[in-house]
Amino acid sequence: MKGFIFNIRTKVIVGKNSINEIPIELEKLGVKKVLLVTDKILRNNTDIIKRIEGVLQGAKKEYVIFDEVKPDSECEIVDRAYSLAKSQGVDGLLSVGGGSSIDTAKAVAILYEKGGKIKEHSGVFILQKPTIPHVSVPTTAGTGSEVSHVAVIKDEKEGRKLIYVDYYIMPSVAILDPTLTLSMPRNTTAYTGMDALTHCIESIHSTENNPVSDAFGMHGIRLIKENLPRVMENPEDISARQNMQVAALMGGAAFTNAQVGVVHAIAHSLGAIYGIPHGLANTLILPYGMRFNLPECPRYKLVAEAFGISEPDPVKAGEKAIWAVVDFIKKLGLPLTLKEVGVKKDDFPKIAELAIGDPSIISNPRFAISQEAIYEILEMAWDGKL
Fold first, then answer.
1. CA 251 to CA 255: how far, in whole Å?
2. What's this model's pTM, rounded to 2 decimal places?
3. What are the residue boundaries of the structural domains of the chain, listed by start?
4. pLDDT tens track for 234-273
5. What does CATH list as the number for 186-383?
């Protein structure tokens, strides 16, 4: 028996058209002028930002828009967003979009406390007190960033991803409105859903697991198993979309408290080197990371149970859990090998170097902080040999 801490600082509001609650929550937080952090695709190609602007204008809430976020948001983007916020007298943040927009706002919140450039502050538990209020409005269902204590920002110049971890960067409020996910492209729906599944599974196998994170992770898997295929088959299924948002939130809360592992460490490296979307990178590594961990991970029996598999023997249950994940990826029509997405074996040393230095790897159930361990997983993932 071990002690543990479970922390979720974020108030969560779930429901159709719940974006109408944004001004109310900003008012409760004492925010007078808010920086709306988003990307140009959402602003120019969907009605989402216009809808939110309408809500803010209807409540006579002052706002400034920063729409320069990119997938895998970069240090320079964060610095520009912070400069705009300070010059405009902003006292609150409103992130609207996927994990990159939410992470950008979290990084801006760090600069409100620390100042300087965001690249200077990469690390763990660097804040001493709560920072600027932040309302997050995810338009995808996967990252869980709306309730997590992690932000990932790309250092474009050095070709690596910087990790920021602190409970004080968890958003004040998360608003999950399933109508906002209707505009997600099919691939994004699948990738982000697999990101959520990876969070749930890695939180269960992590050495920092606890009973509460297990509960979140296991039910998150159940929701994803039932609802992601429904959304892929019928993108207008609002009920399934809301369930996927809840599953993503549960995965985010689970890994915030239990951490992740080698799958995320390698996925971050693939994203930094090749620009592979994070959810797809997790997909490409997940079954092989599970295979690598299986000798030290009887807890995959819990993953099997969440997939509806009844098997009393932990090793056999773990084996079945791996193949359940493979079958699920096939059902979604996603690739299962690194060679399918253009990863080169010549880059394995660089991938391994970045993965070994990634904080995610520390809580992996089997020791993986070695080139040999990362190579073992990459070799399996490159040609799909399980």
1. 6
2. 0.95
3. 11-181, 186-383
4. 999 999 999 999 999 999 999 999 999 999 999 999 999 9
5. 1.20.1090.10
